Predict the structure.
Amino acid sequence: MTLRIGFSLGILVLAIWYTWIAFTGLAFMDRWRPGPGFFPRVIGIAAIVLTIYSLLVDVRARAARDTVGTPYLRDILIFFLYCGLFVAALPWLGGLLSMIAFMLAALFTFNRGRPLTNLLVAVALPTAIYLIFEVWLNAAVPEGRIPLPW
């Protein structure tokens, strides 16, 4: 199994789980308008279809030199551990703080040579995502038990 195939299989599992939550826990329509489950279903189905397509392409073009060795497998497992911790931290820290913590952990683990860039990206990107959803789209971002000052 190559690194790309292993990573794609992990993403496929997460996409199926995400889509299952979108179909079972969120309403598709609300008063003849798209409900909170509309976009998650579209994104989940698209993620599953695109990941399966990527898997098929990678299986056909399997490269012997890119086999999953110990360092790649370790990195994949660490990344999925961070993803699980991110989901577990959402109810406690909220969306913004969880995103910042996830980005800090991932960037400082996988991009060790650029600490200033890691710090700027880990703060700027989640803040921009938070502002886009909370202010511009007026969509609820999970609030945690730690209140934000605004």
User: Anything to note?
Assistant: The chain has a mean pLDDT of 84. The CA atoms of residues 2 and 67 lie 4 Å apart.
